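Researcher: Quick sanity check before group meeting.
Model: Go ahead. Protein one:
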Amino acid sequence: MATPEEVEYEKFLERVRRTVYIDELTPLATYPVIEAAFNQFGTVKSVSFIPNFLGPKELPIGVLVEMETEEMAKDVTATVTQLPFMVAGMPRPVRATPSHPHMFVDRPKKPGRKIRFRWINPNDPDFDKAKKMKRLVRKHTAETSFMLKKQLEEADKLSKQQAETAITHHKKFEMCDKLLHDGVAQKLADCYNIKSYPYR
């Protein structure tokens, strides 16, 4: 007979299995944008943003997207990484992976799990190991912050390139539209004896 804690944890694991972790999202990706994008794969039950604790708010963020079923979550994972994520009409690369229990802030305590800790004095044999671990954590934090900063610079560069491309295409469209409306295209077609169709 399962205990109430075991039942609660099993329900939590079911939620984990139908949730997808989306990485490298631009801060421009709001709740409505994400919900609308992933509703194409099924029904989105919830969207939870994971704050970036290692750097400024403008750094790329992660998000947990809970789908209605596990199958929908698998479809998202299989498809999203292969296609760009559209934000404000611009494609942005993202990564989609299955979620893990440690990603959830509201995760319940795992039945039977115990956490033990103790204070270590300078004369303790494990004191040097603890100091090395502390230095390693600081090093990893600095490396992660540097990588996130580089990632933000690349995302900003991509955004500027996409904006310039959009402006260029818009100018070309305006020029073509003007040529058709002013009758220049028809005159050129007549000059070179090219059959043309009326602009609609």
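Researcher: Fine. The other one?
Model: Protein two, sequence then structure:
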Amino acid sequence: MADENTILTKIPDELTLQIAALLRNGLGGQPTTTNSENLSLGIKLEGDNYALWATLMKKAIGGRGRSSHITGEPSPPSKDDTAFAKWEQDDQCVFTWLIQNIDASLVNNVSQYPTAKTLWDGLAVTYGSETDSLHVFDLHKRANSLRQGGDTLEDCWNKLQKIWMTIDRRDPNPMKYAEDIQIYNNKVQEQRLYQLLTTIDDKLEPIKRDILKKDPLPSVEAAYAMIRREVARLNILKPSTTEINRPI
């Protein structure tokens, strides 16, 4: 099992960009508070966003000089040491910060840990594991069952992208040689193309068929661009309400 540092070093470029965006925008418009008893990142751990959350959380705790309570270095003082009472108070504070930044639906599963370090390690094992087969299965299930419904095309694309990014992080390409890596990536692209076409509205069946007739099949990004152009064309050609109601 990879340790927490190994997990964090594998954050993909997309997550790095998300971190930069959050920092530019003041952590989602909710800057870290100055009250020593409270700390808000502006985002909460929801499971899929562990890598981003852990990176920001580690920086926020480190910024308040409490990194040792999640890294374990240096080791805490013994219980008979006069410094233990102060260490325990600080540890409870860090524990509270962690809980404050975890989604309410997950709190009951993690609140039983005795120290901030054991809580931090438990979160890394539960949500940072790259070999969590059940979670990977759930992600694939969500991608396959996603439907546009009342969402915009862009909303659907963003939801799929988020799921795919998490799958890539938790279930990376297992191939060793360049040719095999490319073959695997091509199959993944094909699968994601089918997921995109399944997700979007049935009213776009004509453009779906056009995409599937292409040989070779386009990448999922190219297919999305084609669909966007078609949606834009249909919106331009759509008659206005005035035209619809105009008497013949």
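Researcher: One line on it for the slide.
Model: The radius of gyration is 24 Å.
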